[in-house]
Amino acid sequence: MSDPDNILNGFESKFSLIKNKDDLQNLKSEFLGKNGSISFQFKKMGSLNPEERKIFASKLNEIKNKITFEIEKKLKNFENNEINEKLKDEKVDITLPIRTTKNGKIHPVSQVIDEISSIFSEIGFSVAEGPDVESEYNNFTALNTPEDHPARDMHDTFYLDKDKKTLLRTHTSPVQIRTMLDGKPPFKIIVPGRTYRCDSDQTHAPMFHQLEGLHIDKDITMGHLKGCLNYFIKEFFEVKKIKMRFRPSHFPFTEPSAEVDIGYKIENGKIVIGEGDKWLEILGCGMVHPNVLKNTKVDPNKFQGFAFGMGIDRLAMLKYGINDLRAFFETDYRWLNHFGFDPLDVPTNYRGLSR
Ligand code: DAH
Q: Would 178 be classed as within a structural domain?
């Protein structure tokens, strides 16, 4: 048998024993490497006469091609197997039953919106909604905030067009306008929803949640406003008594306007609402300005009422002891698992809001 034939036989018997990619790489360099058997044979050719050399070279090339082919084929095989193994591990079996140990949780903001809706529905408010993308008219002008009014700058508005005619609503107050234009008085609504301002730090997010309230009827007074807010705050914080004070303020859409503070104290590092001598601002409110009623075709000589607006995220933080607003929007499952609520525990006034 010639040397090339020996090489092929040697290769085949070793090749049949190959178990993995490393073995294969070793075999490859043993036969095809710079100092491998094939190269060695090529080097020997110099001692042959031209006729013999031709036959020898062609035979050697044939063997080299065969070995190369077998090795490459096997290598591909190993690589495919590797990929298939990996895919097997990573496969998601969508027919698997759900994990009962990891139920989803209700986000504290959703929980607080449910609680608020339940509290206000007990005294006859219904829930209204409006779009996040709002007209400049509903967000400002109709709310008695003309173009040159400084309140517009204070809102850090995200405008959506060059002409500043469309925007992301900066508050839930435009839903007052939509509701009144859409129906006839009386109106008694709350509006929970997303609002947007170009602002972001530890206590401000560019998207946040507000709750608007509006009650328009005959003979509604500031006394009704006080009673309503007093009831709400007691129910929301689940306390029997609260301290509340009204401070004069200014909003273009109310006259008179007030900001409301509630009394609190810190006990063992925790906030206690309703006692103590510290004050916390929680909402803005007032009697709806006659211009707002005129803009919505409600006769201010017959009807009047109050409105209020507050930050839902802040209420949630206060009630549930969460101190970084940004965590609300980070979708971290561990955070949600800790601060979230059982989906089946729907808050109601009579069964308890936040058990
Ligand atoms: N829209 C006001 C804001 O975002 C909050 C507000 C204050 C709403 C007084 C009202 C109100 O309805 O009467 O700052």
A: yes
What are 181-199's pLDDT values in tens digits?
999 999 999 999 999 998 8
Q: What is the pLDDT of residues 142-193, one digit of tens each?
A: 999 988 887 777 678 999 999 999 999 999 999 999 999 999 999 999 999 9
Cβ atoms 238, 353 nearer than 8 A: yes
* CA-derived radius of gyration, the chain: 38
Tell me, yes or no, whether 224 lies in a domain.
yes
**Does 97 map to a domain?**
no
Could you identify the atom of ligand 1 that is nearest to the CA of residue 176?
A: 12
Cβ(284) – ligand 1 distance below 6 Å: yes
The residues, any chain, with a CB within 8 Å of residue 75's CB and separated by 6 or more, are 21, 24
Residue 251 CB less than 6 A away from ligand 1: yes
What is the reported pTM?
A: 0.71
Q: How far is the CA of 285 from the centre of ligand 1 (A)?
A: 6
Which residue out of 144, 177, 196, 251 has the highest number of ligand 1 atoms within 8 Å of its CB and is therefore the one to mutate?
A: 251
Q: Which atom of ligand 1 is nearest to the CA of 254?
A: 13
Calpha distance 290→144 (Å, rounded): 9
Nearest by Cα to 21 from 73, 86, 75: 75
**284 is in which domain, residue-wise?**
108-351
333 with 246, same domain: the answer is yes
Residue whose CA lies nearest to ligand 1 atom number 7: 284
Q: Is residue 36 part of a domain?
A: yes
- Mean pLDDT, range 251-273, rounded to an integer: 93
When pLDDT is averaged across residues 68-76 and rounded to a whole number, the result is 93
3-state secondary structure of 168: strand
**Structural domain count of the chain:** 2
